[in-house]
Amino acid sequence: DICYTVFKAAKKTDRRFSHYQIMSLIFCILFFAYGTVNMQIIRPNYHTYTSEKLKEEHKFVFVSDIHVGGGQNFSTVEKMVENIYAQSPDFIILGGDVTDDFTTKEEMSETYALFKDSDIPVYFIYGNHEVQQHPEYSGGANFSQDEIREAIESNGIEILVDEFEEISDDLILLGRNDVTAGENRLSAEELKNPSPEKYLVTADHQPIDIKENIKTGTDLQVSGHTHAGQLFPLRLLYSLLAPVYGDYEYDGGVIMNVSSGSCGWREPFRTDSHCHFEVIELKPAE
Q: What is the DSSP string of 52-93?
């Protein structure tokens, strides 16, 4: 529509704007305004799951794909973290891609510092962008892997790399290393669930290894990475190939929840699903 409008305006034979051109320009302005504003609004997305393994109620927040300094500005992240704590969760999971190749060292440090001095446990799993696989895209890495680990741990955040964490008498958390870790990611056979009678939540950044994670005894997997397509109609196209957004149920009642993430990739523009963090309630089956 924009190209056609410019072409028509440049033609010497006819420079008059038609109703079609006017409507096209209005649509384009509204489209870009919506996509820009939609990226800056991060909403809580509520879910409730039940299980006979659960003896009491639990609430936690899963937030992934923040991409601070890349696609999301720091002030929006600050407001999101305030909203996360307003949900009064029992614990918080940072589900990977908190930072990326375009995040500055200062933005990285300040983001993890938002979770400092909290009475609520915060757990972190790696995504595919934390390792800054392509620093050449941003003119070089802005911080080392040691510096990112120091920033995370110095603010009281626990890193889980293919590790189990006992949450309560009936709940256990498994934090998976990202699939981009290759040989450094353990297989299901190498992960022995210390409490198979407990409800197992597995946090895995990418939603592509659910069948492998089911072998560990997973009851609920929470993932991100896909951004729910970010730009319409990519979600519809991606969904033909793999899980993209929402709940997916597997044999044995296993559920995988794929978050739309709290940001998009690189450009601060989103025309598909809203930015979310997931507020998940776990309840005993009646």
A: TT-SS-EEEEEE----BTTTB-HHHHHHHHHHHHHT--SEEE
Residue 38 parent element (H or E): helix 19-40
Structure tokens given for 83: 């909203």
| Cβ-based burial of 92 (10 A; exposed 0-12, middle 13-18, buried ≥19) | buried
Structure tokens at 187: 């297989």
Task: With cut-offs at 50, 70 and 90, classify the pLDDT of residue 154.
Answer: very high
Read off the pLDDT of each residue in 189-214 and give the average, rounded to a whole number.
Answer: 94
Angstrom distances, CA of residue 221 to CA of 164, 172, 176, 271: 14, 12, 10, 26
pTM score, whole prediction = 0.90
User: Do residues 80 and 63 touch, judged by C-beta distance below 8 A?
Assistant: yes
Q: CB under 8 Å to 132, separation ≥6 — which residues?
A: 100, 101, 141, 142
SS3 163: strand
H helix or E strand, kind and range, residue 48? strand 42-51
CB of 223 closer than 8 Å to CB of 242: no
Report the distance separating Cα 200 and Cα 220, nearest Å. Answer: 7
Q: Which amino acid, one-letter code, is at 186?
A: L
255 Cβ neighbours under 8 A, 6+ residues apart: 49, 219, 220, 221, 247, 248, 249
Beta-carbon-side half-sphere exposure of residue 121 (alpha carbons within 13 Å): 13
Nearest alpha-carbon partner for 163 in 62, 248, 84, 93: 93
